[in-house]
Amino acid sequence: MYLRILYIDRIGIVHDVTGILAKRRINIISMELEENKVFLECQSVCGDERKECIEELSSIVGVQKIEEISFMPSKEKTEQLDAILTSVHDGILAVNQEGMITQYNPAAARILNLPIKKALGQPLGDVLFKKLLIQETLLTGSHYHNREVYIESGASYCVVSTIPLRNNGNEVVGVVALIRDTQEVRSLMNNMTASLPMTFADIPFASAIMGQVVNQAKRYAASDSTILIRGETGTGKELFARALHSSSARAHAAFVPINCAAIPETLLESELFGYAEGAFTGAVKGGKPGMFELANGGTLFLDEVGEISAHLQVKLLRVLQEHRVRRVGSTKEVEIDVRIIAATNRNLEDMVADKIFREDLYYRLNVIPILVPPLRKRFEDIQLLGELFLKHFAGKLQRPVNGFSAAALERLQDYNWPGNVRELKNCIERAVNLVDGSEVQPEHIFLGRPSGSQAAPPAVQFETYQTLEERLAEVEVVILQETMRRFRSSRRMGAVLGLSHTAVLKKMRKYNFPIS
Q1: What's the pTM?
Q2: Residue 286 pLDDT
Q3: CA 342 to chain centre
């Protein structure tokens, strides 16, 4: 029998309640008091006797109302708390002043690799007592917010926040620790910040050769093997890497790209492998996870992998072999589950022969090769891609352009596109900015390098007995003339020819070209 008794406070009212129950020989199992309320858990009583007991209790001076209830307040609160602790994904651990565990949820058991039965009601071990910053919080009363720590029992990093519990005298009598698995934090961050997934359906093509490559890649996506994507700059290697990830069993996890050529070697190591607190001057307090840890469970895309130094090649090989990563300045190794997709425009075979790239790392990366063909070998794709880019930039720039003239399209198709799809995209964006009507004309298309219709080099005349230097000079003059005809500025000529501004001026003076 559970009763809630509402009363007007007076001395002796609780005594009167318990006296009636004692007289009727009804045992009180538990009692809880709140302001102007008393809750009773009593032994079971049959219907008539229960009714009589309630009527007698109602006759006590000051009693306003008596209700039968289903639970005692403490039990209801306990069940609500248990439901909350069980449902949350973050680990919650509470200890009292003596370091005994008073609250411990399943998430904490999973993260710390410590079963609830062995933890709840037991003293927290010395290692976790210090690692989870509970000892410091008990001693200093300080809050700690999102501090990354390494947990040996779980062989992983986690993020810890602590809250001191105080009594009415402001003394610290316990601590609540909130523990987050770093992998779950990173997954949440990735879901909130990641761009829309790229699939094979987002790779436009009309050529048979690209169709073969896409079909091969679709088959490889289901595998978990390492993939090496080969191809010239601007062919869309990262596009393939993202599509491979989106079509794999890891699509729900992070896709982490890093351009190995864009980051100095001194920083690339800490970016890839992370670093521990105090590893070097300026290191973030608590350390920082590297790309391998951020990609745990997902895919790490190593773009321009051929640019990695010999020192980092050794560390990369070790991670690929052992599936474990060690942060810079740390002695702890973290097990990782990452699929590697690498890409390069370099000839790795020549680099291996020249002892620039490790042969064992080459074989580790080149498990499944994918070769993305250059645009000049995908003639059928030029018009398709050009029209897609035209539609995109016309909408973005709000220009009423809806097509190419026949001459403009012919100009696009006559060019060999050394910069591949990236160069074509830039060319179309420039054309949309220049066009006034509804069609792109040849004069709106500025190509970065002389096209296939450029003037032919002078014919070799053996009877003149020219030296090689003289013959090369004749070709150089033709190239300079053609470039100057198309690009009036010596700076633009230098950009096209891959020369400095001063080098172009020097050559123009050498051959007596007019300098404006």
Answers
A1: 0.60
A2: 60
A3: 17
